[in-house]
Amino acid sequence: MENSLAVIVVTWLTMSIRMSIPLLFPSLGGLLAQKAGIYNFGLEGMMLCGAYFGYYGSYRTGNPWIGLLMGMAAGGLLGFILAFTSIKLRVSQLVIGLGISIFALGLTGFLFRGIGISTTSPAATLFQKIDFGLLKEIPVLGEILFTHDWMVYAGFALVILIAWFFYRTTSGLNFRAVGENPQVADTVGINVELYRFLAVIVSGVLASLGGAFLSLTQTAYFTENLTAGRGWIAISAIILGKFNPWGVLLACLLFGAADAFQMQIQVMSLGIPYQFLLMIPYILAMLAMVGVVGKVRSPAAMGKPYVKH
Q: What confidence category does residue 294 fall into, taking pLDDT thresholds of 50, 70 and 90?
């Protein structure tokens, strides 16, 4: 009995790490945009396009790297659209972000049906897991930490990189200044528009990586609405993480653990309706939001268009 429980716990922890990654990439992308003062409500749509074009590229070429590049290009393009309309045209960031998500849902569904690919079609080529050799044979820790593909470790490395960029570099300080007080940043010679454009485009690329992770490491297929609202949970993770890369990582691990938990419960066949279990991560996201709303300080200029005088 104890051995069975240990296996369940190890499996749950391993799955928790894996399930946090499709949230971590878009969360970090959204964090970049919001630190620069742009609210990216299009994360869900960018994820969907990353998932679809990642799958399509890998399916057609047999090379997951080409699929990944196609997905990143799609996310970057949507990021550019959000940046241009919200920064240059000063259209509502909320409206454009929601429009991108709705557009991407319809576009990927249309393309998916239009080209005749279904789950009965040959699967896309997936990224292979890294072979850590003897490290994966370490009791308990070996399975939890050393049985994943490269995108998992890239996600954690990205947290370190972004934290270093924000708090240890001059460019990172300028970046945060653009989101806090663009007028002052502009006065001292910082190009506000350039920083915001770069932030939103990179945000789109990172969000697309979250979607591509699903289709290129997990499912090998694409289905309509594959991301299943993860882009919206990513926004919750940013707020719960208090707009800090390390806090965002912990929030994503928490949501990943909840997702892995509901999967484990389904496998155990305890008689609980699976529809209720699927709600667990979203219920947790709502409870987390209720607990932190009003207690987290967002970048002062977030959501506000900047007009140079």
A: low
